[in-house]
Amino acid sequence: MVMKGYTAVSADGEAILYEDRKRWLWALSLLYPLQPLLGIWLHYLTGVEAWLLLPLLTGYLIAPLMDWVLGEDQNNPPDAVVIQLDRDRYYRILTYIVVPLHFIALIGAAWWAGTQELSAWALVGLAIVTGLTSGLGINTGHELGHKKSRFERTLAKIVLAVPAYGHFWIEHNRGHHRDVSTPEDPASARMGESIYRFATREIPGAFRRAWAIEKERLTRREKPTWSTDNQILQSMALTLILQCTLLLLFGWKMIPFLLLHNAFAWWQLTSANYVEHYGLLRRKDENGRYERCQPHHSWNSNHIYSNLVLFHLQRHSDHHAHPLRRYQSLRHFDDLPTLPSGYFGVYLIAYVPWLWFRIMDPRLLALPHVRGDLDKVNIEPGQRSKILEKYASTASA
Amino acid sequence: MSVFQCPECGYRFDEEVGDTHEGYKPGTKFHTLPDDFACPDCAVRFKEDFVEA
Ligand SMILES: [Zn+2]
To answer: What residues make up the domain containing B33?
Structure first.
């Protein structure tokens, strides 16, 4: 395969030649949205309904296994080539092509669910795996929604319409990035908060914050909140058209199918949000303002396989430092809070709260900027006394 | 009329044109923006971080 090199001169005058070893691997992004269709095809060939669950296997078994086998990738583009790499159109075009693929995946799976005589569990299973796949669509919407161009923001609204999550990019860009790793952020998990409890705070909290941000903008523009200029409603309108069409075409089965699909797509995002900032806390200065988000306010993972699936989302500290930076240019840094595995493996841990607390709480308290000091941790208020009792001794040690 | 720029992402607030998408009319002075004004593009830099370009 031909490598594409970037040349630049570093700050100390040295000539640099950089080749992105992951360049062509990023094209795998075009395959992940199609996983439910692969399962359907295998079901069609063999008549075995269990094949419909194929994306569960790739997501929860193969992905953690690939992370374990392939390990980490700490390869970084040098500072001097980041701008060139950012401008290389190849990378962004991949994110554009992924958008229609998510529509094809949902429509294809709905068609199969609506036209085949599936058993109840197969229908439920197909809805869940299609939802998990649309969760990846939220990740693509995340990448696109951070960009300045109107075209990319429009694509973000379009892809977020698939899982009925059109408010996400507004909430995320203008809310989460501003409030990250503070008790005020519904999308930052607290120490002692299980993922299930977090979901009940994050999902409604994120929607309310998005709505408030958009309402404020429309008020400044002297427009009603319920108007065609409301960017949340624009995306939701597309959701309504898409999902009502599926309902009309494929009948009542679409009601449980789409509800489960949407819920599991949201759950994917909840899972990512849960692990990204668990327990981390920005300090308040003397004026009561939070310090700027620092690299140690995000958990990271350099596992190459899951990073390829998620457009480098796991290089999360650099993402928060430079929210507009394109995925291919996100960098790894030493000595950052690091998750024990890539997201997909870590999700499995998070779904078992006692295991999660057991693994992550000591990891959190051992961070160099925390060193057991519970005042430097974002703690779930209901768990505070329990956590103080359990860990107060480590602070003095 | 001046131009103020976000040091993180390069977003420019030109007082002459304002930012109609955000609801700031042409001619809006930068100092009249709300105190909690965050950069509309990156939201990680605030009014006091902006530099006059
Ligand atoms: Zn900015």
So the answer is: 1-53
Residue of chain A with shortest Cα separation from B34: A220
Q: How confident is the model at residue A353 (pLDDT cuts 50, 70, 90)?
A: very high
Q: Among A217, A219, A324, select the one facing B42 at the smallest CB separation.
A: A324
Per the CB < 8 Å rule, is B42 touching A292? no
Tally of structural domains, chain B: 1
Tell me how far the alpha carbon of residue A323 is from its chain's centroid.
Answer: 14
Task: Name the nearest CA neighbour of A134 among A268, A246, A311.
Answer: A268
Average pLDDT, chain B: 94
CATH number of the domain encompassing residue B52: 2.20.28.10
Tell me the average pLDDT across A37-48: 96
The three-state secondary structure class of A251 is coil
Quick one: CA dihedral A260, A266, A269, A273, positive or negative?
Answer: negative
pLDDT over 60 at A1, yes or no: no
Instruction: Confirm whether the ipTM is greater than 0.85.
Output: yes
Closest partner residue to A323 (CB to CB) among B20, B24, B44 is B44
- Interface test mutation site (partner B, options A173, A290, A294, A329, max chain B beta carbons within 10 A): A173
Closest CA to A8 of B16, A93, A126, A19: A19
How distant is the alpha carbon of residue A143 from its chain centre?
9
